[in-house]
């Protein structure tokens, strides 16, 4: 089987789906790799490096799509909401596609992908089970984003992060607050601690308290309890507006005392909750910084403007999106490793094995033979059950 790696075409995207280092392990499993010329250059991987590891470089995108049985991308049509559609005419019926598809974003996009006849897998739908941990691209990218968010904040802040005792006096450490202590938030805590800041973190899931403390952060306890805080996959569940209202009231004081606020609070498939209002921004000290990692999904700060950095009431609010692309070498390396593990899982004896009894395959498969086949996604968009699925449901009863 041939795995094709096209160059990423989302504006400003610098990552690449596979790096040279994973080519030999794919070859061992009988998977040949073809790469569009210069696909890895922006991430720091030259065509010569791919060739040295046994991949073949093809001069055009059309040739990659034309020759591959499986196309691997970072941002596919869907998560690439700007230029992704350009790939649709290039897909071949029966070809497989793996990447970020943003499956809870827009049903029209998924229908367009289904109509091409590709068998697509969304890495966002990877189940959070031990067996799938090394395929979990969301966690990999979250790690990168959490790290980079702290560096951006440190760069914008007119203060030092660490405490310093100097002949010119003692510098007090900066106070960093992380809202949302999932993968990105935990990495942000660790990074801010390494830079010497005093770090606090808050999450509506109380189970993360110990993780925050083990990284040297203080867990902010608010006298408010989320109902049914997390789902079986470990993701936060959406709360009603009165809960978010109360959260904002209680968070106000902690936000005002912080030099840096990094927000990462997201709920899958939902607009991000607003946790930092414009009044809370106005109460922050001049020069403070907010980095809103939820910017792409509406933002956790009321004033965030996606893709922009603005200054309001003297507070810098960073709404950068697609932050993982800003560390393209390691983001690509981690993503490539996740994809390789996933490919080795999906391909058996030189062919794609669509074993729907397997939780990893079943959860990530989105489209097949012209249809959106994922039951969770069909339910999310209120699409009727497919005939084959209602038959299976009846059998199960
Ligand atoms: N294989 C596995 O077992 C596996 C893999 C990856 C992650 N996880 C776990 O899943 C959990 C969530 O991971 P994630 O980082 O992808 O989540 P995420 O990116 O969906 O959300 C980020 C964080 O925001 C928090 N949040 C949402 N709404 C909030 C609100 N109103 N106020 C405060 N915080 C809010 C969430 O609880 C979460 O911790 C983590 O605990 C992580 O360790 C498990």
Give the SSE map.
Elements: E1 2-5, H1 23-28, E2 32-36, H2 47-52, E3 56-58, H3 61-67, E4 70-75, E5 96-100, H4 107-115, E6 119-122, H5 137-156, E7 164-166, E8 169-171, E9 175-179, H6 183-194, E10 198-202, H7 209-214, E11 218-219, H8 241-256, E12 260-263, H9 278-282, E13 289-292, E14 309-312, E15 315-318, H10 328-346, E16 347-348, E17 351-352, H11 359-364, E18 365-368, E19 371-372, H12 375-380, H13 387-396
Parallel strand pairs: 1-2, 1-4, 2-3, 4-5, 5-6, 9-10, 9-12, 10-11, 12-13, 13-15
Antiparallel strand pairs: 6-18, 7-8, 14-15, 16-17, 18-19
Helix pairs in contact: 5-6, 5-10
The chain binds nicotinamide-adenine-dinucleotide.
Total E-strand runs: 19
Give the low-confidence spans.
none
Say which molecules are bound, naming each kind only once.
nicotinamide-adenine-dinucleotide
Widest β-sheet, arrangement of strands: 3-2-1-4-5-6-18-19
The total count of helices amounts to 13
**Mean of residue pLDDT values:** 95
Question: How much beta, percentage-wise?
Answer: 15-25%
Gap between N and C termini:
39 Å
Biggest sheet record: 8 strands, mixed
The amount of helix comes to 25-40%
* Class derived from helix and strand content: alpha/beta
The radius of gyration over CA amounts to 22 Å
Shape: globular
């Amino acid at each position: 089987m041939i795995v094709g790696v096209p160059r990423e075409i989302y504006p400003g995207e610098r990552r690449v789906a596979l790096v040279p280092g994973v080519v030999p392990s794919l070859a061992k499993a009988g998977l040949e790799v073809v790469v569009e010329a210069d696909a890895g250059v922006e991430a720091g991987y030259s065509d010569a490096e791919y060739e040295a590891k046994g991949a073949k470089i093809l001069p055009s995108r059309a040739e990659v799509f034309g020759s591959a049985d499986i196309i691997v991308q970072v941002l596919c049509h869907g998560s690439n909401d700007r230029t992704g559609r350009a790939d649709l005419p290039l897909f071949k019926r029966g070809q497989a596609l793996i990447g970020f598809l943003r499956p809870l974003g827009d049903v029209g996009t998924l229908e367009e992908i289904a109509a091409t006849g590709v068998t697509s897998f969304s890495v966002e739908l990877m189940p959070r089970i031990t067996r799938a941990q090394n395929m979990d691209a969301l966690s990999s990218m979250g790690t990168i984003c959490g790290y980079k968010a702290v560096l951006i904040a440190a760069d914008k802040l007119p203060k030092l992060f660490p405490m310093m005792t100097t002949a010119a006096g003692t510098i007090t450490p900066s106070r960093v607050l992380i809202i949302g202590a999932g993968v990105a938030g935990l990495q942000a805590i660790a990074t801010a601690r390494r830079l010497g800041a005093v770090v606090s973190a808050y999450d509506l899931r109380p189970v993360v308290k110990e993780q925050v403390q083990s990284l040297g952060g203080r867990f902010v306890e608010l006298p408010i309890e989320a109902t049914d805080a997390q789902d079986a996959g470990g993701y936060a569940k959406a709360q009603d507006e009165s809960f978010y209202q109360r959260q904002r009231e209680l968070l106000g004081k902690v936000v005002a005392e912080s030099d840096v606020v990094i927000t990462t609070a997201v709920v899958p498939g939902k607009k991000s909750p607003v946790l930092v209002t414009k009044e809370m921004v106005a109460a922050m000290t001049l020069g403070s910084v907010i980095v809103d990692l939820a910017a792409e999904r509406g933002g956790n700060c009321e004033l965030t403007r996606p893709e922009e950095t603005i200054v309001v009431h003297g507070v810098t609010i960073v709404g950068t999106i697609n932050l993982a692309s800003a560390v393209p070498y390691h983001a690509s390396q981690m993503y490539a490793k996740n994809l390789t593990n996933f490919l080795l899982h999906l391909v058996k004896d030189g062919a794609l094995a669509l074993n729907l009894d397997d939780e990893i395959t079943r959860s990530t498969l989105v489209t097949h033979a012209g249809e959106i086949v994922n039951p969770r996604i069909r339910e999310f968009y209120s699409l009727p059950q497919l005939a084959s699925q209602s038959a299976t449901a009846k059998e199960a009863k």
